[in-house]
Automatic annotation (TrEMBL):
InterPro entries: Aminoacid_DH-like_N_sf, NAD(P)-bd_dom_sf, THF_DH/CycHdrlase, THF_DH/CycHdrlase_cat_dom, THF_DH/CycHdrlase_NAD-bd_dom. NADP(+) binds at residues 165-167, 231. It catalyses: (6R)-5,10-methenyltetrahydrofolate + H2O = (6R)-10-formyltetrahydrofolate + H(+); (6R)-5,10-methylene-5,6,7,8-tetrahydrofolate + NADP(+) = (6R)-5,10-methenyltetrahydrofolate + NADPH. This is Bifunctional protein FolD. Residues 139-280 form the Tetrahydrofolate dehydrogenase/cyclohydrolase NAD(P)-binding domain. The lineage of its organism: Bacteria, Bacillati, Bacillota, Clostridia, Eubacteriales. Its EC number is 1.5.1.5, 3.5.4.9. Homodimer. Pathway: One-carbon metabolism; tetrahydrofolate interconversion. It comes from Candidatus Gemmiger excrementipullorum. GO terms for molecular function: methenyltetrahydrofolate cyclohydrolase activity; methylenetetrahydrofolate dehydrogenase (NADP+) activity.
Length: 284
């Protein structure tokens, strides 16, 4: 293996430490950052994610509220919860854990979160501000990817970045953030022709496909920075990325592991955004 590993756990610990220091400074000024997390239903993976977020809050000194609704909750009930949190000045960030049960319109719920409390960065105002290059809450996963790339010392400006995936939560915002850093960005998706060839020309390759081992060694440019967003549970019960790690690591300059890469950074960036929301709400 020639690639250096981008250690998501270590970077995430540093981001959380920064957040904790900011929380302490805010508390000294009478502001206690608080994140509210709403979970609808009993999805086991969502329960694990929510528990993780609550633990992260505790670690950073951020107050948290965990609101549980049954899987049978109506859209009106969920919207009423969001409205109550929106009106509560002691709550700075509101996160509704996705996916939601089928009877609830996800878009309507995200739209109901006030932009200034939308720490996931999914509301239309934040999406628009990101696009326009204005101050906003950057979605946690792509924001974490950028931090990881920066941690390698790579100057993103002028580099050819290829993003595989165009979802609203990862692919598109990752492309926008890379463009904002002056990369030349190519976005690939399921209809892309010559995908392997495009990837092989990438100085920075971000894989957000949702298919284990999708990125093979021949798709990696020697020396490239490879960011593997994928989380795929294999038949072996283990988590696998979208990148064939062993093969890609022979060629890449830097690579993120799965687990221990983008996942921990995503969680840490949520803490960063919550502190930012509290600071902005206090006008500090
Ligand atoms: P989506 O399913 O929403 O998007 C997948 C994207 O990959 C789509 O744009 C799709 O193209 C594209 N794609 C699928 N198959 C192919 C193919 N054969 N060739 C080219 N492109 C293809 O997934 P998400 O963006 O939500 O997530 C992607 C992965 O990242 C998942 O494994 C998810 O679990 C993981 N994830 C990890 C997070 C973390 O914290 N580490 C956070 C969020 C997600 P098209 O648009 O044409 O359908």
């Amino acid at each position: 293996m020639s690639a250096q590993i981008i250690d998501g756990k270590a970077l995430a610990a540093a981001v959380k430490q920064e957040a904790a220091a900011e929380v302490a400074a805010l508390k000294a000024q009478g502001v206690a950052p608080c994140l509210a997390v709403i979970l609808v239903g009993e999805d086991p993976a969502s329960q694990v994610y929510v528990r993780g977020k609550i633990n992260d809050c505790a670690e950073c000194g951020i107050l948290s509220r965990s609101i549980r609704l049954p899987a049978t909750a109506t859209q009106a009930e969920l919207l009423a919860q969001v409205a109550a949190l929106a009106a509560d000045d002691t709550v700075h960030g509101i996160l509704v854990q996705l996916p939601l049960p089928a009877q609830i319109d996800e878009r309507a719920v995200i739209d109901a979160i006030p932009p200034q409390k939308d720490v996931d960065g999914f509301s239309p105002v934040n999406v628009g501000r990101l696009q326009a290059g204005e101050p906003c809450f950057q979605p946690c996963t792509p924001a974490g990817c950028i931090r990881m790339i920066e941690s390698t010392g790579t100057n993103i400006a002028g580099k050819h970045a290829v993003v595989i995936g165009r979802s609203n939560i990862v692919g598109k915002p990752a492309a926008m953030l890379l463009l904002a850093q002056n990369a030349t960005v190519t976005v690939c998706h399921s209809k892309t022709q010559n995908l392997a060839q495009l990837c092989a020309g990438a100085d920075i390759l971000v894989a957000a496909v949702g298919r284990a081992g999708f990125v093979t060694g021949d798709m990696v440019k020697p020396g490239a920075v490879v960011i593997d967003v994928g989380i795929n549970r294999g038949a072996d019960g283990k988590l696998h990325g979208d990148v064939d790690f062993a093969a890609a690591a022979q060629k890449a300059g830097w690579i993120t592991p799965v687990p221990g890469g983008v996942g921990p950074m995503t969680r840490a960036m949520l803490m960063h955004n919550t502190v930012l929301a509290a600071r902005r709400a206090a006008g500090l």
